[in-house]
């Protein structure tokens, strides 16, 4: 997809179906007062409302919990220990969520707070849970406002920066566009604050070592933000088939600005999100079990449908929800593979049954599909 404006009123976001906007603390929170910049946030909310009117599903990944919360706990003027940051985040996250609720509520938009840890996006069982919840929220018309669950995520298991968190979320929900709002309008050949010869890079099609060299070294003591984490985010996004922009966010209505041709760096993937997701399922994951289907189910899969429990005749191996399993035909021939929505034990209990019987059989209302069509790759 071309990233240039085509005709007037048809800007760079034309054709976008699912968009993630990442908002950093430096944009949202006033440095000196520790207060949320409400006018700026209201303007972003106006942009988001306009996107949704055009049918673009929008998710926000917002930082700012620590920056807002530290002031209320009197934690200013010095570097914070991890547990102090976590305490600050617990205080600030409530204020952050309320601010988004107010700003988007002006447009009658419901906000849903979603706090994630690294595990939620990487561990497959939780990945499926978070993906289903986020897609359900979007289907219900809500705007998810996502942050890292800072109060429980400790040093080894945290993202630490919302650039990569935003890219993981993009991958998880198969978003087609990710916009990182920043204090700079994109990637430069070298640091423009230090070198006059620095040139802006409008488009990147792969994160080569030359591109990585442009970001330079991470600043000492760096924990979040900077060009290094943005390129790390770009790698994740491109592998997921999601295009990504680094755009300046400091003015009001930065998304409308981007749409109207404001300068930015666009990272352009070679595949679409769903193709990339299927590539991930086909190539990266080791199947740990197998399910065998009846002829009717094989036919339904051939027509692009999801796999329902009714069409499963045999379950082999031991696996958990979210694991990759082989899918076999009645003669035992492998047809493909997919991420299964049930553990082996539960799959055995519900195989051959109608989806509406799942609750009576398992004691909980699981997914209707054994393998959703988005999670299925046929050979
Ligand atoms: N999760 C952190 C916060 O809300 C921010 C991480 C980052 O700066 O990217 O304060």
Report on this model:
This protein is of the alpha/beta class. The protein has 2 domains: about 5-275, 3-Layer(aba) Sandwich (Carbamate kinase), CATH 3.40.1160.10; about 285-379, Roll (Archaeosine Trna-guanine Transglycosylase, Chain: A, domain 4). About 35% of the residues lie in helices and about 20% in strands. It contains 14 helices and 15 strands. It has helices at about 25-30, 40-55, 65-70, 80-105, 120, 125-140, 160-170, 210-215, 225-240, 255-260, 275-285, 295-300, 345-350, 360, and strands at about 20-25, 55-60, 110-115, 145-150, 175-180, 185-190, 200, 205, 245-250, 265, 290-295, 310-315, 325-330, 335-340, 375-379. The strands form 3 sheets. An 8-stranded mixed sheet has the order 3-4-2-1-5-9-10-8, sandwiched between helices. A 5-stranded mixed sheet has the order 12-11-13-14-15, with helices on both faces. Strand 13 (about 325-330) and strand 14 form a beta hairpin. The longest helix is centred in the N-terminal third of the chain and has 24 residues, at about 80-105. It is globular, with a radius of gyration of 22 Å. Mean pLDDT is about 90; it is low at about 1-10. The protein binds glutamic acid. Glutamic acid (GLU) binds near residues 64, 148 and 225.
């Amino acid at each position: 997809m071309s990233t240039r404006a085509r005709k007037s009123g048809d800007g760079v976001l034309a054709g976008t179906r699912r968009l993630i906007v990442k908002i950093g603390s430096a944009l949202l929170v006033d440095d000196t007062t520790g207060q949320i910049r409400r006018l700026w946030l209201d303007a972003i909310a106006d942009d988001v409302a306009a996107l949704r009117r055009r049918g673009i599903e929008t998710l926000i990944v917002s930082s700012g919990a620590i920056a807002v919360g530290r002031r209320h706990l009197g934690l200013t003027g010095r570097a914070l220990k991890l547990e102090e940051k976590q305490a600050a985040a617990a205080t600030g996250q409530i204020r952050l969520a309320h601010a988004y609720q107010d700003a988007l509520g002006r447009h009658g938009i419901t906000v849903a707070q979603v706090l994630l840890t690294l595990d939620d996006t990487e561990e497959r069982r939780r990945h499926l849970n978070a993906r289903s919840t986020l897609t359900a929220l979007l289907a219900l018309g809500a705007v998810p406002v996502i942050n890292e669950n800072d109060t429980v995520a400790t040093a080894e298991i945290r993202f630490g920066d919302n650039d990569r968190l935003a890219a993981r979320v993009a991958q998880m929900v198969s978003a087609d566009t990710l916009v990182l709002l920043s204090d700079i309008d994109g990637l430069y050949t070298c640091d423009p604050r230090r070198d006059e010869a620095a040139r802006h890079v409008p488009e990147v099609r792969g994160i080569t070592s030359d591109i990585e060299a442009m970001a330079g070294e991470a600043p000492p003591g760096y924990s979040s933000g900077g060009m290094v984490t943005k390129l790390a985010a770009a790698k994740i996004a491109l592998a997921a088939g999601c295009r990504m922009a680094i755009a300046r966010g400091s003015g009001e209505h930065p998304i409308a600005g981007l749409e109207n041709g404001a300068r930015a760096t666009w990272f352009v993937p070679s595949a679409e999100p769903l193709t990339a997701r299927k590539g991930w399922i086909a190539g990266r994951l080791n199947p740990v079990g197998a399910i065998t289907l009846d002829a009717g189910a094989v036919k339904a899969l051939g027509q692009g449908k999801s796999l329902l429990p009714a069409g499963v005749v045999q379950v082999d191996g031991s696996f958990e929800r979210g694991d990759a399993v082989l899918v076999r035909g009645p003669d035992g021939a492998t047809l493909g593979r997919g991420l299964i929505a049930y553990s082996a034990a539960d799959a055995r209990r519900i195989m051959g049954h109608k989806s509406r019987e799942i609750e009576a059989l398992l004691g909980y209302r699981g997914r209707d599909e054994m393998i959703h069509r988005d999670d299925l790759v046929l050979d």
